Amino acid sequence: MPNVLVFIDTPGQVLKKTSLELLTTARSLGEPAVAFNGELHDDVAVTMGAYGAAAVYRPSTQDLDDYLVAAKAAFVAAAVDKSGATSVLLENSPEGKEIAARLGIRLSAGVITDVVAVDADGTAHKSVLAGSYATAAKVNTPVSVFTVKANSVTPEPALAPSSPEIVTVDVPADAAATAARITAREQKVASGRPDLTDARIVVAGGRGLDGDFTPVEELADALGAAVGASRAATDAGWISHDAQVGQTGKVVSPQLYISAGISGAIQQKAGMQTAKVIVAVNKDAESPVFEIADFGIVGDLFKVLPQATEEIKKRKG
Amino acid sequence: MEETLKIIVLVKHVPDAQFDRHLSGEGHTTDRDESILSELDEYPLEAALQLIEARGGSKAGNKVIALSMGPAGAVNAIKKSLQIGATEGVHLTDDALAGSDAAATSLALAAAIRHLGADGPVDLVLTGMASTDGETSLVPAQLAERLGLPQVTFASSLDVDGGRITARRDADTHSETVEASLPAVVSVTDQINEPRYPNFKGIIAAKRKSITTLSLADIGIDPSQVGHAGSWTTVTSAEERPPRTAGTIITDEGDAGIKLVDFLAAQKLL
Q1: List of chain A residues whose C-beta atoms are within 8 Å of the C-beta of residue B259
Q2: Residue B136 and residue A304: Cβ atoms within 8 Å?
Q3: Which residues of chain B are within 8 Å of residue A132 when distances are taken between CB atoms?
Q4: How far apart are CA B249 and CA B192, in angstroms?
Q5: pTM here?
Q6: Which of B171, B179, B232 sits opposite A180 (nearest CB)?
Q7: Check: complex ipTM more than 0.85
Q8: Model pLDDT for residues B129-140, shown as the tens digit of each residue
Q9: Which residue intervals of chain B are DSSP H helices?
Q10: Do A293 and B246 touch (CB under 8 A)?
Q11: Mean local confidence (pLDDT), A100-129
């Protein structure tokens, strides 16, 4: 009997890295199964088997995407009932957390968000207050719900692949009755860069860029990094609000965070101080960012960044 | 004549993020000595005020109720909200609430919202996108589930017309238009508006506005259902991270870009 359910939502042709991470974490807790929404491509089914999924639960209705969160939560709750799972793992995205939130109420189950590791006994580890504390927490209810941050584990296939059984789950009729309806959806133009929240390297720019993000973008592309920004830069309209790193934006913990022209006030620090390595470039030697930087350069970013970009290209051949 | 609205805005007093913040006590809860109105709660308050001002304001019978759950100090978040323009304040406070997780918090808030609907239905419950301390963003979705109401979260624009709301949501890869009927639970982002500051007139007017205090008994919740006892999660340990320390700081002498790349190579980050 599978006892850990992973929710995977509309992956398309290939499973995302975060889904593989969730399946890997699930195997460390028990026998995984998947609650799956969307079209199930053969390759995706094979990958889920390779990662040890014993069963794949699919909703009886195809319109879960037309409603905001509530219908998906009702489906996952029904899949938990059907599978008898005692742990549920979801992505730590805004939507993942909201599905987890409602699932918690539906199942009378405790929810822990922003998890970076789950022990075999169900103890979950996370950072709070902008990374200033590391806490451990436990769920006291029969079912536990965790939203797990990206890059928390390295995805690893199971030793022996399984061929998951496909099971249809009836979505309760009330699921959509009180849900908000999504009436239009517009795709944004893809940047081709990695997703900011999951990226291994982030290059971020702030007020010091004075409206021109080119040096940040070029360095990011040389490194295969995502582009971030301080609130000052997004508020000024120099770059999309999606790029904001900080207390009111995204919280990132990449391997490397390069901060350029950002003073590093508390609101920005809250979004990036759990990065493994921090590099800062700022012309003001008194900038608070230098207090937390592993390597700091007091200098003109319009000279330093292009020089670094050229050097990286040269070394990478 | 437009419909009148009764809006509840959830406000939270949180430790000021300008200073160091701490966890303490057996339950590893947040210290709230230096607390302020959560910056992210100014946006739903502003959204509520704009909605009622478009309908003749409080004179026309519209209400914006600032509701806060928390210990004595939480009343400061309510007072600030009244100064900014909320028409009345409600403070849900009870010793038994201390240490409530999101599930217990949403249980108590849902009961308080039902209680406030007894003298006339509530049209909208507005919240911020997260608290700036707990940052789980769980409570709005849990409230919607508990109240059986549509959930419209992370709205970056909001229109209310003829008992329906239309909102825009911006995600990284796409934007959505969302529609729901009233009443609904709506959380708004910091992109939705520019919150106003309290002015002198507002500060004077706030002194005449009433703040109602509710206990758990008033809203029909047993103390065992909330607080540490009623929570479905328990924080078992909390360790303060050693603060980051400064590393090597150099001044550019024309080759800092090269030195940066040398540093990345030494860290195996290339």
Answers
A1: 297
A2: no
A3: 20-21, 240-241
A4: 40
A5: 0.88
A6: B179
A7: yes
A8: 877 666 677 999
A9: 42-53, 75-84, 102-116, 139-147, 200-206, 227-230, 256-266
A10: yes
A11: 93
